[in-house]
Amino acid sequence: MPILQSCSKILLGFSLISVMLISQINAQGQMNFPVTVNITSPVTLAVQPLCGALSSENSTEVNTGILLSPTRTIVAFGDSWTSNGANGTVPVPPIMWPPSPSAGSQFTENRRASNGFIWVEDMANELSAKLLNYAWGGAVIDNLAYNTTSPLNATGVPRTDFVAETSLFLQQGRFLDALVPNETLYTISFGINDDGQFKLAGGNMTLAYETYITKLGELQANGATNILVQGMYKHTPEIDLLQNQIFAYLRESNAVNGTNIAFVNLERLFDTIASNPSAFGYRGNATCLISANTIVGGCNDPEHSVFWIPGHPSQNSHRLISEYTMAVLDQCTV
């Protein structure tokens, strides 16, 4: 397929997603943040959360008191499934510039690993909330935990980690937003790259856990009272154990200091999509693009694909992640 023809088809698929700018005044007379709203997504959420008990030994979907309606700010940490390329700054609009496959990547390396908004942007838009996004593509919990990323290893190649993301937020976050505790939601989404790096050359998952809860503790010490953790979208023994340990820490935090915590199991969402994609409205190619570097050779119908580039959700799947996350918060209160 000629490059121009391929690009035009991808752009056509993108243009089918109509967006509009909305400013609203809420019941308290405050002006909500202007948001862009996806109004023509062809996929729908066809699974509901499987709520569990806070006393569970394994991670399960719960919410001990996080309320969506008062949320005015979301602070996000994680990897490419959460990153919009902002890294604590103002994000580039998610405009496609073929042949680049990354929304918003014409002028800067700050980009999304998708063809539109990332789930946490959708969530912020839905709530008319301000988003401070520190997530970055390729991020792990702690570089020191894996032989492939440890700076102590001569062959290690460090990447962004939860340590660096938290450090940057603590340096600048209070200058960017008032961070009113009961109006601020902190979201943490790690595991994909931790699993990948551990499988490549091993590492220390105990250190990863210790770093994870240390960073959560630092956020709590600096005012975080609403913490949402997303579990990884697929099952692996090492990450399952890690998530169970993190869940136990969250449960203890709730009991000891009253931190409102929530856990969202993305594995349930994506397992259900894999078993019955048509129920959600997906069809055709499960993954639209064959490369993370170009749209050339990609599918003709990206709006009905689960993944945009290999291993990374399409903009419509991100919308479902947002909807599913909010469903857990609404339905799984304990």
UniProtKB/TrEMBL annotation:
<dbReference type="InterPro" id="IPR001087">
    <property type="entry name" value="GDSL"/>
</dbReference>
<protein>
    <recommendedName>
        <fullName>Carbohydrate esterase family 16 protein</fullName>
    </recommendedName>
</protein>
<dbReference type="Pfam" id="PF00657">
    <property type="entry name" value="Lipase_GDSL"/>
</dbReference>
<dbReference type="GO" id="GO:0016788">
    <property type="term" value="F:hydrolase activity, acting on ester bonds"/>
</dbReference>
<dbReference type="InterPro" id="IPR036514">
    <property type="entry name" value="SGNH_hydro_sf"/>
</dbReference>
<feature type="signal peptide">
    <location>
        <begin position="1"/>
        <end position="27"/>
    </location>
</feature>
<keyword id="KW-0732">Signal</keyword>
